[in-house]
Amino acid sequence: MITALDEEFEAYQYSLESSVWQESLPTFQFYASENVSSTPKVSVIIANFNNESYLNNMMDSLVQQTIGLEQLQIMFIDDKSTDDSLEIIRPYVEHYQSIEVYALDQNTGGAHGPRNVGILNARGDYLVFLDADDWYDLDALRYLSQLLDASGDDFAVSGLVQSRNGEISLKSKPYFYDGDFKNRSIQDLPAEFYGWLGPQAIMLRRSLVIENELHFVNQRVADDVTFFYEAMRFAKTITQGKELTTYLNRDADNVSLSKSINRQFMISWLRALSYINMTFPDDISKERFLARRIEWLIHDFCLKRDIGYKFSKMRLQDFKSQLDRYLGTITFDPSPYFRNDFRKTAWQYLTKNDISGLYRFILLFSVRWVLNRKLGMKTRKEDTYFFPQLFRGLIETRLDAYAEAVSYADGKIKAKVFSYKEVVGFEIYDIKRPYGTRMQLIHQRESENEYQITLPDDYDDNKKRFVVVFEDYSEIGVQDFRKVFIKED
Predict the structure, then answer these.
(1) Which end of the chain, N or C, is less surrounded by CB atoms within 10 Å?
(2) Which secondary-structure segment (H or E) carries 417?
(3) What is the pLDDT of residues 8-35, one digit of tens each?
(4) With a threshold of 0.90, does the pTM exceed it?
């Protein structure tokens, strides 16, 4: 029997057995460099719409790739931009080899259209998908392709860096911190791995995409994560490389991300998750993927205020109704994978359909959050710290973690760590390169909450930062560390 959800999946071109997605793509005007390879190693598929400010940086990162332009098929696919994007690209076509321009005759309304045009016209052994405002490290495509050459896998990930107004930070820590792997089962991936899965820092074998008829679904959001999760399912194993290859642009003057998070965004994501839930068997990979995405949606549509869907009881009720419609059939509790008590408590209210209680909890927690973050207020019960309680009857919410320095002597720092998360170690890193090489420190656990950590002789607190690292890749600084370190030093 065809259900309403089946009809919705068909309307948005989810099926891997239908060619409708190909037939619906617009025609395009094509021109290219004088010299292009008929057998490139890597096809770079670039979806562009009105990104003129970022194109030089993106293209410069491609024409200087160490793999060599003769090994590339650079596919610039313009979704009928209204700015000067095509004029900016034209000099690159004239002066460099291996660049192809596909100027679509109609706007497709999202990156899915250009990306699908790219899939149908790609010739490389491997595919990468590059957003037009992002860019690569100059060794990225050589590095990623060699990883897949060596492993035989169909899917590779590598280190991803986020750039926000010139400030650099690491994105998707499991891509980077887990180190080098090949033939790693997707069932072994930690839940946090599934917190990203955008096109950045991923390379695929083209045969995987073609043989499984993979394509981007016809909706503006969640098309990429759906595509890459499907690719993972068919690949079964992946290769990971810890080198940093890709830079994700998150400049403040880029298109506002928060305001684009609206009701249609919510529906699109839930539709995508519903499709994944109904298509793939229940296993640990699907469970972790869905849990991380449900948690993310709870954060956006229950807890956040500054998005394009106004915060209200009506929004909470709508989210609950749509959650039930699309994901009411999940067979597991996702909340153990959630990263903090705030989100777990929100899930409890949702499962009880207590929207009034959820609304009240969110309003009061906003006050508690400010009291803790701005004024340092907290309460302690035994070995656990909580956000300020305010009054009796309010659900207690644990701080993720709290750490404080006790003393420093003979190159060793004593610290107390309070958390419901497992401590996996202590690290120091360069303040100017927080994503660079980190030093894992020798430590000894002296009691339930007390640790003794050995600092290197040349440790400089003005240049380095000392942090506690937990099982979910989160980390915190240590209160009073500098005071104790300087005083004793």
Answers:
(1) N
(2) strand 412-419
(3) 999 999 999 999 999 999 999 999 999 9
(4) yes
Strand ordering across the sheet containing 443-445: 401-409, 412-419, 450-454, 443-445
Contacting residues for 126 by C-beta, under 8 A, at least 6 apart = 41, 42, 43, 144, 145, 148, 203, 204, 205, 206
Q: Strand pairing of 126-131 and 42-48?
A: parallel
Q: Are strands 155-164 and 237-249 parallel, antiparallel or unpaired?
A: parallel
Residue 412 CB neighbours (<10 A): 14
Separation of alpha carbons 228 and 234, rounded Å: 10
Three-class SS of residue 331? coil
H-type helices in 152-195, by residue range? 173-177
Q: Which residues pair with 155 in a beta bridge?
A: 204
Residue type, 308: G
Residue whose entry in the numeric block shows the structure tokens 């930062």? 465
Predicted confidence (pLDDT) per residue in 130-160, tens digit? 999 999 999 999 999 999 999 999 999 999 9
* CA proximity to 265, closest of 327, 223, 231, 320: 223
Average the pLDDT over 119-138 and give the result: 97
Q: How far apart are CA 355 and CA 437, in angstroms?
A: 46
The better pLDDT of the pair 174, 214 is held by 214
CB atoms near residue 378 (< 10 Å): 16
Select from 28, 41, 37 the least CA-distant residue to 101. 28
φ, ψ (nearest 5 deg) of residue 261: -85, 90
* Spatial distance between the Cα atoms of 447 and 22, rounded to a whole number of angstroms: 62
Q: Which long-range contacts (CB under 8 A, 24 or more apart) does 7-13 make?
A: 8/271, 9/271, 9/275, 12/217, 12/218, 12/219, 12/271, 13/215, 13/217, 13/218
Residues 284 and 231: their CA atoms lie apart, in Å, by: 16
CB atoms within 10 A of CB 328: 9
Q: Which of 155, 161, 234 is nearest to 202 (CA)?
A: 155
